[in-house]
């Protein structure tokens, strides 16, 4: 290892990655450095999602990258995780786009759609020509989707959807929405073109987090769909939960990208900022903060790599995803806050990334299962006693 690598990778975790994985990381990192970092402060301040990057991400093979066939890149779980880490080092909002498009919308079609649906949507979605969204969460059903109020009733050969969804990423710019609704035979998934009469998506504003991203409220006012809008393979909550686990997996990696970027910003600042005639980095308290950050980033990254290898081997269980999502989000947000503290007053400006990352992570630790939900999942696994109610 060289001295530069030691700063962020004292355990040489890069040695656990293949040459191909390191090459992919370099490609995505260059994209982040060239297209996201120079602009993200302005995008965040103006609450602007750079839709112009969507097709560029498609051209890089970042959309549905872990899916096979139908024009999808067919990369490994570890490669997808590496990309998520680098994107979130730029901004959580940009990583979230890739997650909503690939891990949620495209995964739902890939896992549960008909061949006709897969061929109709997936190639265009992989290129970024078609944007998707994933409508599960509702105004009164966030952590408990079993109580969803959106209903789908049969109407001749077709369906009519009525209800509302909330906190749905990309909905106002999406071309197709994966909507989950309660039918007579249980929860079912539907592909809803967003220009269908009765479908309305309204961005949620103003926000203090995920400002360079789009989250919406969806209203479904008697949305009429043909029979072939139904995802035939999905019945019950297993359908949406399988997609949520794909997104949760990406967060394990992404959160460590935000943490690493914040640590590196604080380290660089502490080496240059003089207080009482010497650099901040020369003080014991500052070094303790930096060491604690580095330890958790190294452990969290190792957890992400191990989880990814299990996923690629087909042995990863949902409870193991909860370990990573809970731990890495919880530690990442603390790292970002401690990094902001090292930056002092300058840290509250958009000249530096840690507070922006910390604000974004308030959303990341909430969506795809809150800290409390993942704690209960693990508690149930440990004790054999579900404590959700």
Any idea what the shape is? globular
What is the end-to-end distance? 50 Å
Query: What kind of oligomer do you see?
Result: single chain
Strand content: 5-15%
Assign the CATH class of the largest domain: Mainly Alpha
- Count of DSSP H/I helices: 12
Uncertain runs: none
Question: Major beta sheet, specifics?
Answer: 4 strands, antiparallel
Number of domains: 3
CATH architecture of the largest domain: Up-down Bundle
Average pLDDT rating: 96
Radius of gyration, in Å, reads 21 Å
Strand order of the largest sheet: 2-3-7-6
Structural class: alpha+beta
Domain Acyl-CoA dehydrogenase/oxidase N-terminal: 21-129
InterPro entries: Acyl-CoA_Oxase/DH_mid-dom, Acyl-CoA_Oxase/DH_mid-dom_sf, AcylCo_DH-like_C, AcylCo_DH/oxidase_C, AcylCoA_DH/ox_N, AcylCoA_DH/ox_N_sf, AcylCoA_DH/oxidase_NM_dom_sf, Glutaryl-CoA_DH_mitochondrial
Cofactor: FAD
Keywords: FAD, Flavoprotein, Oxidoreductase, Transit peptide
What does this structure look like?
One of its GO terms (molecular function) is glutaryl-CoA dehydrogenase activity. One of its GO terms (biological process) is fatty-acyl-CoA biosynthetic process. By secondary structure, the chain is α+β, with helices and mostly antiparallel strands. It has three domains: 3-127, Butyryl-Coa Dehydrogenase, subunit A, domain 1, CATH 1.10.540.10; 132-229, Beta Barrel (Butyryl-CoA Dehydrogenase, subunit A, domain 2); 238-383, Butyryl-CoA Dehydrogenase, subunit A, domain 3, CATH 1.20.140.10. Helices cover 51% and strands 15% of the residues. The protein contains twelve helices and nine strands. The protein has helices spanning 3-8, 19-36, 40-46, 54-59, 77-90, 92-112, 115-127, 238-272, 284-313, 318-343, 354-364, 371-383, and strands spanning 132-135, 151-155, 158-169, 176-183, 186-193, 199-203, 215-225, 274-275, 278-279. A four-stranded antiparallel β-sheet has the order 2-3-7-6, covered by helices on one side. A three-stranded mixed β-sheet has the order 1-4-5. A two-stranded antiparallel sheet has the order 8-9. A hairpin with a 2-residue loop joins β8 and β9. α5 (77-90) crosses α8. It is globular, with a radius of gyration of 21 Å. The chain starts with a helix and ends in a 6-residue tail after the last helix. The mean pLDDT is 96.
